[in-house]
């Protein structure tokens, strides 16, 4: 292995030791540090072959962190697609994780309602828009409100 490859691999391994990266994100960060893009691509591909970099692990980690923040599938999906993740892989992993998006939306509404119930339709609409901004569908938002007694 050439010294360039060793340097790139060492930097990549240090990055992956801190957190998971998508292959596209990892390549992008390495390209910022190193000029030889072909070598970066070779190193990242080898890391993938050795299972040291995995888009599937990256997706799982990313989805878990966003669920903890109370974000819905649509927002998570948009961010992952921006980071170079295939939509099919995301859908497969999300279905394997068995996430109840309706329950998550309900928990977000419950936290939002700690300051009190909405007094009128305008405040109720603000909660729906808030949930949609967070990445939940209109159906999930409506069901969450209904289950919280605001239907």
Tell me which CATH architecture of the largest domain applies here: Orthogonal Bundle
Strand content: under 5%
* Sequence stretches where pLDDT stays below 50 over 5 or more residues: none
Principal-axes shape call: elongated
Give descriptors for this structure:
mainly alpha, 9 helices, Arc Repressor Mutant, subunit A
What's the topology here?
Elements (H helix, E strand, L loop, with lengths): L2 H16 L4 H11 L3 H13 L5 H14 L4 H10 L4 H11 L3 H12 L8 H13 L4 H10 L4
Helix pairs in contact: 1-3, 2-3, 4-6, 7-9, 8-9
Q: Could you walk me through the main structural features you see in this protein, from its secondary elements to its overall organization?
A:
- The protein is mostly helical.
- The protein contains 9 helices and no strands.
- Helix 1 crosses helix 3.
- The mean pLDDT is 90.
- It is elongated, with a radius of gyration of 20 Å.
- The chain folds into 3 domains: 3-53, Arc Repressor Mutant, subunit A; 56-97, no CATH class; 101-147.
- The N and C termini lie far apart (64 Å).
- The protein is 73% helix and 0% strand.
- The protein has helices at 3-18, 23-33, 37-49, 55-68, 73-82, 87-97, 101-112, 121-133, 138-147.
Structure described in brief:
The chain is an all-alpha fold. Helices cover 73% and strands 0% of the residues. It folds into three domains: 3-53, Arc Repressor Mutant, subunit A, CATH 1.10.10; 56-97, no CATH class; 101-147.
């Amino acid at each position: 292995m050439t010294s360039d490859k060793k340097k790139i691999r060492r930097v990549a391994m240090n990055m992956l030791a801190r957190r998971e990266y998508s292959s596209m994100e990892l390549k992008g960060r390495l390209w910022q540090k190193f000029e030889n893009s072909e070598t970066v691509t070779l190193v990242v591909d080898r890391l993938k072959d050795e299972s040291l970099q995995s888009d599937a692990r990256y997706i799982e980690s990313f989805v878990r962190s966003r669920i903890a923040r109370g974000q819905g599938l649509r927002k998570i999906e948009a961010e992952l697609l921006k980071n170079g993740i295939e939509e099919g892989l995301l859908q497969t992993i999300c279905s394997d994780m068995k996430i109840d998006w309706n329950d998550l939306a309900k928990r977000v509404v419950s936290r939002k309602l700690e300051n009190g119930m909405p007094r009128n339709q305008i405040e109720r609409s603000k909660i729906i828009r808030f949930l949609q901004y967070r990445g939940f569908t209109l159906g999930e938002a409506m069901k969450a409100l209904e289950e919280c007694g605001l239907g």
